[in-house]
Structures are given as structure tokens and as C-alpha cells.
Design brief:
about 50% helix, two-stranded antiparallel sheet, alpha+beta, about 15% strand, 9 helices, 10 strands
């Protein structure tokens, strides 16, 4: 008899993203479609990284995204609405519903702090999904503490601890560290996917591109991280 071959190691896929980026949510869906086809998906660990497209943005609950885009990009309100309609159609192709008419202009920094809190409890991916849906579909203010606490409750987080973390500024340094790291490695736009720190995909690419990169990165990771014999009392017949 010999010891069974087991390993708990996983390959990291880091995703720099911003909650208010419509292509980040679309990219998330396309990546998920690729991951669903990947034979070793249980060996992949997702790590969400913070990025801010508009760090100086002030939260304005009385203003919708059409107005913000018009002012931010220096275009007419009609042009802004046309751009958002186009993105809405792209989102629909991957099963997402975007309601820009009701989306609230909000600074995303506190939302990023929320995801770092969730990360400590293995709930970061669930937190990201809820934030995206809250912002683009449900018209919620993702800079609002009570809203973030409600989202935390939905993913099973300790709401008292979350409230304390938000109020005392916890995870501010974590968000800033992600943003600094993005600048250091040359990330200028999101979504930006990094596979095992060796391969990258920029933008909401097609699922085929994500799958091909996953396979290439995993081949290299597996070569560098061979499975070893467990010392546990788990045996197979020779």
C-alpha cells in the first residue's frame, strides 16, 4: 500500500477591479464562464484587489450615472445615456441587468474596505458579487455604511464586527496597498486579471481567452508545485 497523493495548495488569480466599473462585472461573468469549464477549478483561489477609477469622486445620492458620465467625460447627457445603453446591452449578453437610471453615484473606497473585511472570513467573492449587483442592478448606495452592513449580513458576516471595522477605518491601508501595487505593476485600467503572477489578461475579454490563460498558467503552477505524498493515514491499495 502507498500513501494517497493529496494537496491543498491552490493557484492564485488576482483581479484588480472597481465596484463602479461596468466592465468589471461583465469581466467577472466571462471569467466565471471560463472557470466553469476548467478541469482544475477547485485548485483556483480568487483574490480581489482594490482599484479606483475615480478616487476623488464625491458620493451624490441625488445624481444618476448618466449625469455623472456627462460631467466627468465632458459630453452631452444624450451621449452619456447612449454609452450606458450600449454597456447595458453588453451586460445583458452575459445575463446581467444594468439599471443606470437608478444607479447612485458613489465613491467606492468604503466598498473596497468591505471586501477586505469579507476576505478575512473567506467571503470576498460573495461580497464582490453583492456589491456589483447592488450598484448596477438594485440602485443602492455602496458608500453607505448601513447598506454595506446589510450586504454583510446577506453573506453571513458578523455585522457588529463589520460596523466597528467601517466606523474605525479598518482596512484603509489594505485598499491603498492594492492601489499602490496596481500602479507599481502597470495596471492602468480594470478589470485586470493576474494568473499566478506570470500571466495577465486586461479587460473583459471573451471566456475563451480566460480559459486559455488559465490552462497555460496552471500548467506552469503545477510544474512548480508538484503534489507530495501525505503523511496522513490515508492509503490506497498498490
Amino acid at each position: 500500500m502507498e500513501a494517497a497523493t493529496i494537496t491543498s495548495a491552490k493557484m492564485n488569480v488576482e483581479i484588480w477591479s472597481d465596484v463602479m466599473c461596468p466592465f468589471c462585472y461583465i469581466g467577472k461573468r466571462k471569467f466565471e464562464a471560463a472557470l466553469a469549464q476548467f478541469l482544475y477549478k477547485d485548485k483556483i483561489q480568487l483574490v480581489w484587489k482594490s482599484f479606483q477609477l475615480a478616487p476623488e469622486l464625491k458620493t451624490q445620492p441625488d445624481k444618476n450615472i448618466h449625469q455623472f458620465l456627462s460631467e466627468h467625460k465632458g459630453m452631452s447627457l444624450e451621449q452619456a445615456k447612449g454609452m450606458n445603453d450600449h454597456v447595458t446591452r453588453l451586460a445583458k449578453q452575459v445575463g446581467l441587468v444594468y439599471n443606470f437610471d437608478t444607479s447612485i453615484v458613489a465613491n467606492s473606497f468604503n466598498a473596497h474596505r468591505f471586501t477586505h473585511f469579507a476576505k478575512q472570513f473567506g467571503k470576498q467573492n460573495e461580497a464582490e458579487e453583492l456589491l456589483f449587483r447592488s450598484y448596477f442592478t438594485d440602485g443602492k448606495n455602496i458608500d453607505d455604511y448601513p447598506t454595506l452592513i446589510q450586504l454583510g449580513e446577506k453573506v453571513g458576516l458578523d455585522t457588529t464586527a463589520l460596523k466597528n471595522a467601517l466606523e474605525n477605518g479598518s482596512y484603509t491601508d489594505d485598499v491603498k496597498a492594492d492601489i499602490y501595487e496596481a500602479r507599481r505593476i502597470g495596471v492602468h485600467g480594470v478589470p485586470f486579471f493576474v494568473f499566478n503572477r506570470k500571466h495577465a489578461v486586461s479587460g473583459a475579454q471573451e471566456s475563451r481567452t480566460f480559459l486559455e490563460t488559465l490552462e497555460k498558467a496552471f500548467d506552469g503552477w503545477r510544474y512548480a508545485n508538484p503534489e507530495t505524498k501525505s503523511e496522513a493515514n490515508i492509503f490506497t491499495l498498490a
